[in-house]
Amino acid sequence: MKWGKLIISLAIPLAVGAVAGIATSSNVDTWYPQLNKPSFNPPNSVFGPVWTVLYILMGISLYLIWRMPVSFARNNALRLFFFQLALNFLWSFLFFEWHLIGWALTDIVLLLVSILFCIALFRRVQRIAAWLFVPYLLWVSFATALNFAIYRLN
C-alpha cells in the first residue's frame, strides 16, 4: 500500500466536502428552513455523517484507481472522477449559497449521470472502486429526487 497516495486520495474529496460544507452550513439554519420541503426530507443532522462516509468511500475508490498501472482507461477514470467531484462541489454553492434551486437540479442530474459513467468506467479498471461508488449513486439519486421536489414546491 502506498500511504501517500491513500492519504491524498482521502484528503481530496474530504477537503472538497469541507469547503462545500461551509457554503451549506451558512444557509442551513437561515434560508433552508424557509423552503417548502417534501415529507421525505430527512433531518439536517443526517446529511453531514452520510456525506462524510460517502467522501471517504470516494477517496478509497480514487486510491484504488490511481494505484493501477497507467493506461488510457485508468486516466479517463481519474478525469471522470474529478469531473464528478467538481459537479458535486458546485451543487452546494448553486443550491445553498446562491439559492439557484433549478440550476442545482440541473447540476445534480449531470452529477448522477457522471456517477453512472464513473461506475461503468471504474469497473473496467478496478471492480471494487466501482462498487464503492454504489452508495454514492444511491444517495445522489435520493438527493436528486429531493432537489426536484424542493424545486417544484418552491
TrEMBL record:
<dbReference type="InterPro" id="IPR038330">
    <property type="entry name" value="TspO/MBR-related_sf"/>
</dbReference>
<dbReference type="InterPro" id="IPR004307">
    <property type="entry name" value="TspO_MBR"/>
</dbReference>
<dbReference type="GO" id="GO:0033013">
    <property type="term" value="P:tetrapyrrole metabolic process"/>
</dbReference>
<dbReference type="Pfam" id="PF03073">
    <property type="entry name" value="TspO_MBR"/>
</dbReference>
<keyword id="KW-0472">Membrane</keyword>
<dbReference type="GO" id="GO:0016020">
    <property type="term" value="C:membrane"/>
</dbReference>
<keyword id="KW-0812">Transmembrane</keyword>
<keyword id="KW-1133">Transmembrane helix</keyword>
<protein>
    <submittedName>
        <fullName>Tryptophan-rich sensory protein</fullName>
    </submittedName>
</protein>
<feature type="transmembrane region" description="Helical">
    <location>
        <begin position="129"/>
        <end position="151"/>
    </location>
</feature>
<feature type="transmembrane region" description="Helical">
    <location>
        <begin position="45"/>
        <end position="65"/>
    </location>
</feature>
<feature type="transmembrane region" description="Helical">
    <location>
        <begin position="100"/>
        <end position="122"/>
    </location>
</feature>
<comment type="similarity">
    <text>Belongs to the TspO/BZRP family.</text>
</comment>
<feature type="transmembrane region" description="Helical">
    <location>
        <begin position="77"/>
        <end position="94"/>
    </location>
</feature>
